[in-house]
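Readers outside the structure-tokenisation community will struggle with the description of the input data as it stands. What matters is that the chain and its backbone geometry are given together, residue for residue. For illustration, here is how one protein appears when written out as sequence plus structure tokens:

…
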Amino acid sequence: MELEALVGLGDGLVSALVTNTDINYRMEGIGIASPNGAVGQQFLYATNQGDTGAAGLYVYSINNGTGALTRIETVATDNNPRALVVSPAGDYLYLTNIGSNTVCSYSINPSTGHPTKIGSYWTGTNPYKLAISPDGKNLYVPNFGGVSYSSYSIASGALTTIQDKAASGANPTSFAVHPSGSFVYGACAASGATSSINQYSRNAVTGVLTPIGAGYVLCDAYCNQVAVAPSGPYLLAACSSGKTIELFSIDQATGALTYQNKWQFSSATSPASVFIAKLP
């Protein structure tokens, strides 16, 4: 099997990696950095949502042999950190803060894993699950309360706003970037029986996003997260109120999404997130 989808039910998937007793509040974002390459020391980072900022980011070392985690330190963030993403090279980390409407950037020490804050940058209202382009040049942030998204260029970890515009749907929750870097997809939770997935083409030079076709496709209620397969042929959407995971094919030339299938969960289950991992 080349690809496997991992479905996060509430905090269940995160709890399998780091026990909830180690985090004071709720872990919403996790990321792994390999700043020294695959054979070097790896580090895991987790946001402590609900924290006012003094201990908003938890840092762990990963045992390369067993996968066991050892907490190294906690690091200050802005108010109420939500989600995070690590740069493709593992040298920078970015996290959103819904209590202060900011995104923070950090450089990662390749030896110790320590994140050093570079700066805080304004977003829209209630920034959620952000994404970074495969070339590490652009960051995309959905603003849940602002019904908008913010785009940034990246230079040595520092951010510069390049775009801040309305999304094609209410309550943007997450972004996913196609492995080619040519297309970007954004989940919009909205309210009611359906929600939507925004679809954009990305300018590789400027990072600016342009809607593809009508700009969106419909999906089941409360699309909380989207994920693109590492080889790029399809996208999965976790719709927590619809209690489904939906499958869309991706046109490799245009980036347009086409609905293919869905998996229905029981009434007691609400898929809150979805991840796709490439297996050996």
